[in-house]
Amino acid sequence: MVRDVDGDGDVDLVTDRLIRNTTHSPPDGGRRRQIGAGSPGTGGLVPTLGADGPFRVGESAELRIRGGVSGANGLLTIFRVGESAHALSGNGMLTATPERILTQIPFTLSGAAGAAGTGSWTLPYTVGGHFAGQTRRYVAEIYDTGGVNGVVRSNSLLITYGP
Hints:
This protein has one domain (2-160): Immunoglobulin-like, CATH 2.60.40. The chain contains no helices and 11 strands. It has strands spanning 2-3, 12-13, 31-35, 48-52, 60-68, 73-81, 100-108, 119-126, 135-143, 151-153, 156-160. The strands form 3 sheets. Strands 3, 6, 7, 9, 10 and 11 form a 6-stranded antiparallel β-sheet that branches. Strand 4 and strand 5 (60-68) form a beta hairpin. The protein starts with a strand and ends with a strand. 31% of the residues are buried.
């Protein structure tokens, strides 16, 4: 069976065998956690924000958005999460302290314009030394006439970077 079982936006192979593999995810490799459900847009589809690591200094990582309207523009917002800000409310928002916006990255989903659920965007990056020990929250907003007020939102993604 082939499907996205871990919610990171890519297809996974599912079998009846469990293979424990820590080669790519050692304890200091960082971690990611998807939070919240996002909001639906054209065709009732919700875009998914996912990532692939390992999330440690010097390694190649990747952020992915899948399932939006092809050709739509959007904005990826990256927040710095403080040490005291790890308490999550039921809707996936951080509640302890305000988060600081680090940057916002504009993007355009690939594919033939207007096709519901087929748009995607990928941002490969190398984890810099300044990421070590930090937690960042990522969220994508996509301009989609099928969404409430013309905007849909992905799930939130928390990534804690290892040394």
